[in-house]
Amino acid sequence: MSLLINQFLKPNGLYFLNHSMGCLNKNQEIAKELYFHSWKNKGGNSWEEWLPYLENFHKILAEITFSKSKNFCYQINNSSALLKIIHAIPKNNKRKKIILSDLEFPSMQFIFNFLPKDFYEFILIKSKNGRIQTEQWLNEIDDKTLFLLVSHVTYGNSFKQPIVDIANKCRKFNVISILDLAQSIGVIPINLENSNFDFAIGSCLKWLCGGTGTGFIWANSSVFGKINSNAFGWFGMENIFAENIDELKKSSNSSQFMDGTPCILPLMLAIESIKLLNNIGFENIYKKNQEYISYLHSYMQEKPKIKVLSPLQHDERGGTFVFSTKNDEQFLNYLKQEKVFVDSKPNYGIRFSPHIYNTWDEIYKFKEIVENFEF
Question: What is the reported pLDDT for 9?
Answer without folding.
Answer: 95
